[in-house]
Amino acid sequence: MAEHRSFTACLTRLGFDAPTRELLDNQGIHTIHDLTDLPFPEIDKMIQHLSRWKPRATDVEEDEDPVPTPTFPYLAVRKFKALRSWADYCILRGDAPNPAHFDERATTRFLNRLTELEEIDRAKKDGDDTKDPPKLASMTGWPTWVELFTTYLSQHRSVVAGTPLAYVIRDNDEVAPDDLARNDWDSVDDDLVATSILEGETFSRDSKRVFDILKPFVMEGPGWPFVQPFNRRRDGRAAFKALKSQAEGRSAIATRKAKAYAMVTTAIFTGKGKFSFDQYVGRHQQAHNELLFLEEPVAETKKVTDFLAGIRDPKLETAIQTCMGDEQKLTNFEVCQQYFKTIVENTKTRTKSPSDIREIAKVGIVKDKKKAKHKKGKSSDDDKSPSGIAIHSGQYSAKDYNKLKPFEKAKVKQLREEAKKKEKKEKSEARSVAAVTTQEDAPPDDEGKETPVPSNAGKQFGRAAHVEQQKPA
Predict the structure, then answer these.
(1) Dihedral (C-alpha) 384, 388, 393, 398: value to the nearest 10 degrees?
(2) How far apart are the first and last CA of the chain?
(3) Same domain, yes or no, for 155 and 215?
(4) Mean pLDDT of each 10-residue bin along the chain, 473 residues long
C-alpha cells in the first residue's frame, strides 16, 4: 500500500492529473515494479492506446458532472519514460528503486539520457559506420587489439537501460562502494559500466551477446583454445577473462616490457632517411605508455636521458647541450621533446634539402621539353581546337580530319603551305652552300694528269683560307 501511494505521488509530480493516474492504475500499474515489468518499447504503445480512451455515456448519471477525460501531456510522458529508465538504472546497480528518490536532479539527468539514447538510435538508422576490429592473429598484438575490441564492444548496447556491453569485460568483479556513492560521473554510460552488477538475467543475456561478438575475432587465431571451453555456455565474460589471462600473464608481461625498453634503446634519429623526428618522439611516447600500463612507469629524468641519447643529428648538438643545462627540460619529457620539435621545424624552413633542389631542376627540364616540342611543330594541350583536335601541319586520320571545322581546315592548309615554303627554302640554302664548297675541276698538268683535289677543301673559308693565301709562292 505504501508503495502504491509513493508511486501515485510520483506520477503527480510528473504532471499527470487524477483521471490519468486512475486510468494507469486500472491498467495494473500500481507500483514502480509494475512499471519495470512492462518492456520499455511498449510504453509508447500503451500511451497511444490510453490517449484514445473516452468515458462511456452510461457511466455518468444525468444529475452528475461529466467524467473528466484523461490526458497525457508530452512533458509528463517524457518524465514517465525517464522514470522507467531511472528504475532500470537502480536495478542494474543492485538497488531497489524508490519513487520518492526520483527527485528533480534525477529527472533532469534521465531526461537527458533519453535524448542521448534516441540520438544514438537515429545515428544507427542513418548508417552504422562502426568498423570491426582486426582478428587476433598473434598474442603479441594483444595490447592494440584489446583496445580496439573494447571500443567496438562499447558501441553495442544492452537492451536494458542501453548500457554499453563493455561492462561485461571490465576488470573488477565486485562494484567498489566508492563507485556506487559517486555522483560526479561524466555520463550515465560511465556510471553503468563501472557499477552494474555482474549477475542476474540481464547480465546473463548480455554475456552471451559478448561471446557471440568475440568468437569470430579469435576463432582462427591462437586465442581460440582459451575461448573454446566456454563455447557451449556462451559465457562471454569467462571466455574473455581466460583469453586476457593468457595474453597478459607473467611471461607475456615480461615480453611486453622488454619490447617497450627495446623501442627506446633502438630508436635513433640522425636527421637523414625517412625516419622523421615525429616518428622518433612517437616511438618514445608509445614505449612510455606501454610501461605505464604495465605498472612500470619510467622516471621523467630517465625519459629525457634516453631521448637525448638517441639523437645523432649534428645540427642538434647545441640543443642537446642546452637541454642538459636546463633543469626544466631535463626533468620533463614533454617540455624537452616540444623544445626539440620546435628547433627541427625551424631548421627545415631555413634549409632546403637536396631533394628539393632536384625537384626544382626536374620541373625546369620538363618545361624545356615542352618548349622544344612547340619548336618542333608538335602539338600540345594549348593547341587544341574547339573540336578537341590539335591543329598542326602533319597528317590526320580521316575520322579526325572530318571533325575539323572549315576555319580549322583552312588553318591546317595554311600551316602546311608555310611548312612547304620553309622546307623549300632550307633545301635551296643547302644547295647554295654545297655549290660554294665544291671546287671546280683542276687543269691537267704537263703529263696530262689532273691535279688532285686537296683533302683540306673545307679550309677554303675562314681563318684557314686566309693563312693559305699569305704563304709565298
Answers:
(1) 170
(2) 151
(3) yes
(4) 89 92 90 90 88 64 61 92 94 92 93 92 74 87 90 92 94 90 90 94 95 95 94 95 88 85 93 90 92 89 94 92 90 93 85 55 52 45 61 81 80 86 81 56 45 46 47 43
Question: Which range marks the domain in which residue 311 is found?
Answer: 253-350
Dump the DSSP string for 335-373.
Answer: HHHHHHHHHHHHHHHH---HHHHHHHHHHHHHHHHHHHH
Q: Is residue 405 situated within a structural domain?
A: yes
In a domain, 90, yes or no: yes
User: Rounded to an integer, what distance in angstroms lies between the CA atom of residue 166 and that of residue 189?
Assistant: 10
CA dihedral 166, 172, 175, 177 (to 10 degrees): -130
Which pLDDT does position 272 carry in this prediction? 87
Q: What is the DSSP letter of 297?
A: P
3-class secondary structure for 370-403?
Answer: HHHHHHCCCCCHHHECCCCCECCCCCCCHHHHHH
Q: Dihedral (C-alpha) 332, 334, 337, 339: value to the nearest 10 degrees?
A: -80
The confidence score (pLDDT) of residue 217 equals 95
